[in-house]
Amino acid sequence: MVEKIINLRSDDEAIKLYGSLDENLRFAEKHFDVQIAARERKLRIRGDHRGVRQATDFFLEHLAVIRGELGEPRDPAGPKALLGEERVPVKPALEFFHKGKVIRARTKNQERYIAAAQKYDVVFSIGPAGTGKTYLAMAVAVDYLKKRRVSRIILTRPAVEAGESLGFLPGDMYAKINPYLRPLYDALYDMMDAEEVARYVDRGVIEIAPLAFMRGRTLNDSFVILDEGQNTTHWQMKMFLTRLGFSSRAIITGDITQVDLPEKKRSGLIEVQAILKRVKGVKFCYLTRRDVVRHKVVQDIVRAYEKHSESKE
């Protein structure tokens, strides 16, 4: 039994080398009869001498293409695998490498969502609970920050009570609003170490605040995420969208089937679909129950509520 370690230069390089859904890793394990462990920027290959050598050559060839040392292969499917004429594509998938793991889209709609977030200045992600709206937005934002494409991340959501009242909770203003912002922290901690998050928050590189705190500001060189957008009013949505400054982009997420506003107030997220549908630089992405990536029962719950709503119309 021998072991070979391939050191990679960057997270982006690792993503490209592993392939979409780790297809290159699975291919190598199957065809070269080796065991592969990929963590952070190290690729460990274990097995007999012949298998390890073949797998190593396989990955080094792919790596040379990724680094531009061999030039692009003629075949658009990718460089030849070292077995006959079979080929394995090495393509830059819509994936992110955060906190030692790969975060990727799991459905076609999620792929379209991430692609839109990388292309458009303002993206609206609308869909039911569990479809990855906030989580994927956070992945894109962290990726932009790590690659220094923006200088800060701003995370916000309206402080609207979901059928409960928190007005009598003890503590100062920040203690009262913290429960509203907890889901944003949860997504952030899943992609960055707690110490790193704390350091960025202290330096103002990451800011998490209620939507009301955005009034009167101009947000330059920022990646801004507005979560729970269905709970904004017409004026709050307009206020938020007009905060964007130079070199900034925004993602607005929300579930228009779960509006917690008083009955007389119309959701800004529902209205904005008609208002901005023809504005260049703005993209609407729609996720459905088929994109739910939580427990399987969540899909069934979403569908049950859809049927109930349809029967009442």
Description:
By secondary structure, this protein is α/β, with parallel strands linked by helices. The chain folds into two domains: 1-93, Ribosomal Protein S8, Chain: A, domain 1 (2-Layer Sandwich), CATH 3.30.1370; 100-312, Rossmann fold. It has helices at residues 11-18, 23-32, 49-66, 108-119, 133-146, 173-189, 194-203, 234-241, 268-275, 296-312; strands at 2-7, 35-39, 42-47, 95-98, 101-104, 122-126, 152-157, 206-210, 222-226, 249-254, 282-286. The protein has a six-stranded parallel β-sheet. Strands 1-3-2 form a three-stranded antiparallel β-sheet, covered by helices on one side.
Largest sheet: 6 strands, parallel
Strand order of the largest sheet: 8-7-9-10-6-11
What's the CATH class of the largest domain, please? Alpha Beta
Poorly predicted regions are: 70-93, 162-166
Can you say what the CATH homologous superfamily of the largest domain is? P-loop containing nucleotide triphosphate hydrolases
Number of helices: 10
Number of domains: 2
What is the fold named in CATH at topology level of the largest domain?
Answer: Rossmann fold
Through-space gap between termini: 66 Å
Along the chain, the helix and strand elements come as EHHEEHEEHEHEHHEEHEHEH
- Overall pLDDT: 81
* Structure class: alpha/beta
Keywords:
alpha/beta, 18% strand, 2 domains, six-stranded parallel beta sheet, 10 helices, globular, Ribosomal Protein S8, Chain: A, domain 1, 39% helix, Rossmann fold, three-stranded antiparallel beta sheet, 313 residues, 11 strands
Topology (elements, then pairings):
Blueprint: E1 2-7, H1 11-18, H2 23-32, E2 35-39, E3 42-47, H3 49-66, E4 95-98, E5 101-104, H4 108-119, E6 122-126, H5 133-146, E7 152-157, H6 173-189, H7 194-203, E8 206-210, E9 222-226, H8 234-241, E10 249-254, H9 268-275, E11 282-286, H10 296-312
Parallel strand pairs: 6-10, 6-11, 7-8, 7-9, 9-10
Antiparallel strand pairs: 1-3, 2-3, 4-5
Helix pairs in contact: 2-3, 4-5, 8-9
